[in-house]
């Protein structure tokens, strides 16, 4: 039995897209994986895929912005799957608009899911990590943290997550816990498909335009991000902390 096969990971927003790929990858790496998302039934296909591959997984419905719900969700994971010592804060939403049209509600909603959500989950899960003197926290930032037209809320949240990550690395390092951020560029998911739809551009054309700007010449895939998470969650990555890894096919968005 490898050391990771005794460990439990939580991935938020894991019913689809990047989160689903991360959950599947961590399961393949030997982790038991709690698949968290707003709709518990929606996590079913990811759990089934993990279990049919011989892994262990649990579907948990929770809104990451709900402090009481987060506490209960993590307690359930600990009871049913084992104490979580890997946390991937991946749940996210977009509410894009130019600043002069952006509502305060859309500002608050984006801050709540990305920043409050990552804060609430990290605060609860770090107890298990500190108890075990071992932990891995990975937060999903974005190349939008560097600034992106129409995303004042999202870019602020994703830049905020980088500062949050570095602070967790400083506070938790002495307990064997690392904290890192991954900042993906353009990744092909329902999130980017919805952005194409809002822009009135067919998704295939939208992806081709993105690929033309990306040095490696293709859009990213959820598995590209999952591979980076796999590294950061591994035993051997214990001296890598407080970093932001851009998974963007090049140095910039
Ligand atoms: P996605 O396909 O939209 O998936 C996001 C998931 O998060 C959905 O299943 C969604 O559930 C869930 N979610 C939203 N709000 C939640 C909440 N309050 N509580 C629990 N779950 C919630 O997005 P993605 O493209 O895979 O992106 C995953 C992460 O990577 C996000 O943090 C995103 O900002 C980041 N990212 C993505 C890209 C990209 O190009 N795709 C680039 C950079 C960074 P519902 O479906 O029920 O809403």
Would you identify the regions where 5 or more consecutive residues have pLDDT less than 50? none
Q: Let me know the CATH homologous superfamily of the largest domain.
A: NAD(P)-binding Rossmann-like Domain
The total count of helices amounts to 8
Estimate the mean pLDDT confidence.
96
Bound molecules: NADP nicotinamide-adenine-dinucleotide phosphate
Q: Give the CA-CA distance, first to last residue.
A: 40 Å
What can you tell me about this protein's structure?
This protein is of the alpha/beta class and 253 residues long. It has 2 domains: 3-185 and 223-244, Rossmann fold; 187-219, no CATH class. 47% of the residues lie in helices and 16% in strands. The chain is built from 8 helices and 7 strands, in the order βαβαβαβαβαβαααβ. It has helices at residues 17-28, 44-52, 67-80, 104-132, 152-172, 190-199, 203-213, 222-233, and strands spanning 8-12, 32-37, 57-61, 84-89, 135-140, 177-184, 244-247. The protein has a 7-stranded parallel sheet, sandwiched between helices. α2 links the parallel β2 (32-37) and β3. α1 packs across α8, α3 (67-80) packs parallel to α4 (104-132) and α4 (104-132) packs parallel to α5 (152-172). 46% of the residues are buried. The model has no long low-confidence stretch (mean pLDDT 96). The protein binds NADP nicotinamide-adenine-dinucleotide phosphate. NADP nicotinamide-adenine-dinucleotide phosphate is lined by residues 12-13, 15-19, 37-39, 63-65, 90-93, 113, 140, 142, 184, 186-187, 189-192.
